[in-house]
Design brief:
Its EC number is 2.1.1.107. The protein is an alpha/beta fold and 258 residues long. The protein has 8 helices and 12 strands. The strands form 3 sheets. Strands 3-2-6-1-7 form a 5-stranded parallel sheet, sandwiched between helices. A 5-stranded mixed sheet has the order 8-9-12-10-11, with helices on both faces. The chain is elongated, with a radius of gyration of 20 Å.
């Protein structure tokens, strides 16, 4: 039977993968949850913080397809809260950066369900920190922009002015369209010699940091068989990222990076 007052739904940012990058509040909420509705990018180490008797419900998204449509996720959160359960909606990175958190907040509000958002370290912030890549730098960039690379009608998107000297462009979900992204940026006037960094599995033990030039981006992603999750950073700041061979050497020595 439904409670007279629904429980609060907590939209919690799980960060980019390393459990040590969780906020204290996020860790506390995960540890006290009755049910956790989580994305596919949430690491096993973070899910292991849940109580043994908590229900874990995966709504993982694969390319262009949810295992559960967004409308069904919204309804699930509302139904669980109305049952009086402690609901944590656990999302990779930050709930409000390409996480559809806004839609879920609106659905809870419309249903009269209390909702709270707990921010997390975004994938861009966490991955850049591991790569020692400053997204802004007094000598290289005074502006940074986040865009989604896996969007419909990529060629029709207006990215003019988002990349170039003095600016940093961070592209989420761009692995599958990396070659098209490079062509688009070059067509929009960005130099083919602009530095680019690709950070795969940022903050995790199997992270890779690859550097190249914009003109080689698509071929490098294919050549190195880069897999999602991965971020593409375009701009002069990419030249500050530690090289792949440095990362490998540190890992071989058992050092912790990040």
């Amino acid at each position: 039977m439904e409670n007279a007052l629904p429980a609060t739904v907590f939209l919690v940012g799980a960060g980019p993968g390393d459990p040590e990058l969780l906020t204290l509040r996020a860790a506390r909420l995960i540890g006290g949850a009755d049910v956790i509705v989580h994305d596919g990018l949430v690491s096993r180490e973070i899910l292991a913080l849940a109580p043994d008797d908590a229900d874990l419900i995966s709504v993982a998204k694969q390319r262009s397809r949810h295992s559960m449509p967004q409308e069904a996720i919204n309804a699930l959160l509302v139904d669980l809260a109305r049952e009086g359960r402690k609901v944590v909606r656990l999302k990779g990175g930050d709930p409000f950066i390409f996480g559809r958190g806004g839609e879920e907040v609106e659905a809870c509000r419309a249903a009269g369900v209390p909702v709270e958002v707990v921010p997390g370290i975004s994938a861009a912030i966490g991955a850049a920190a591991q790569a020692q890549l400053p997204l802004t730098h007094r000598d290289a960039a005074s502006a940074v922009t986040f865009v989604a690379g896996q969007c419909k009608g990529l060629s029709e998107q207006d990215w003019s002015g988002l990349a170039g000297h003095g600016r940093t462009l961070v592209i989420y979900m761009g692995v599958a369209t990396a070659a098209d992204i490079a062509d688009k940026l070059i067509a929009d006037g960005v130099s083919p010699a602009m530095p680019v960094a690709v950070i795969e599995n940022g903050t995790r033990a199997d992270a890779r940091i690859l550097r190249t030039l914009l003109t080689d981006l698509g071929e490098m992603v294919a050549r190195e068989t880069v897999k999602s999750p991965a971020l593409i950073v375009v701009g002069d700041v990419a030249s500050h990222a530690i090289a792949r061979d440095v990362l490998a050497a540190w890992t071989a020595q058992g050092e912790t990076i990040g």
